[in-house]
Give the backbone structure.
Amino acid sequence: MNGPCPIPDRLALEIEDARAVCVGDLHIGLESELRSKGVHVPSQTHRMERELIHLSPGHERIILLGDLKNKVPGSSRQEYAEIPRFIRALQRHYESVDVVRGNHDTSIEEFLPEGVNVHPATGFVMGDVGFIHGHTWPSPEVMSRRYLLMAHNHPTVALEDSLGNISKEPCWVRFPVRKDACKRYVEVPEEVIMLPAFNRSLGGSPVNIKGGRLLGPMFSEDLLEIEKGRVYLTDGIYLGTIGDLMVRSSTSIRTLPHRSRTNH
């Protein structure tokens, strides 16, 4: 099986031999939470649906890598209204729909029509690729794959201009694994690929801010070589490693909203 490959400007990843598309962190229902805080933005669910349907030709399987829903604990009316309709639309265009349980996906089965494959937070495997959300330890089977795909952190890269202002761009990060750092597993992947959030309204956490931290046990237990993580913009441009791209602490900078690099 060929390695997973990001689709330029789509915030989605393709596993070509499996004829599969993978995305993470849709957070359907986010707009309801924002409205409760006085921020009114249109729902992104239909846009995400259209984009994933656009990617369906040539692909048989769609993998949603956790945090399909947004509210936790509990659920919102928006989630009950939009998630089932969204999944049914995907089922009309993909032969298989997979959902990996994320930390926001409590009682996710209530929202899903029949025929959806729901996988535990410990992940599942397909060929030489393992899939997790990223908030908990993967199973040994998942960790034994050549590649591990994860979401959860909504990664962006902070870019500093000559005036010291910071803009944030969604990004992909490919981390090498410390082979002997974790005694929990007999085998570990060659590489961990972290996906940007598919819902563009989320913004994201800069991976290259000094003093920042990435979430999940593989980061807290120092299993991944963070500073050697290779950072790519969503159009495929390689920027360098996290260590090479470090900017000042987020407490001492003026941060501007991230800009989308796509018209979709």
Observations:
- The domain at 5-252 is CATH 3.60.21 (Purple Acid Phosphatase; chain A, domain 2).
- The CA atoms of residues 151 and 195 lie 5 Å apart.
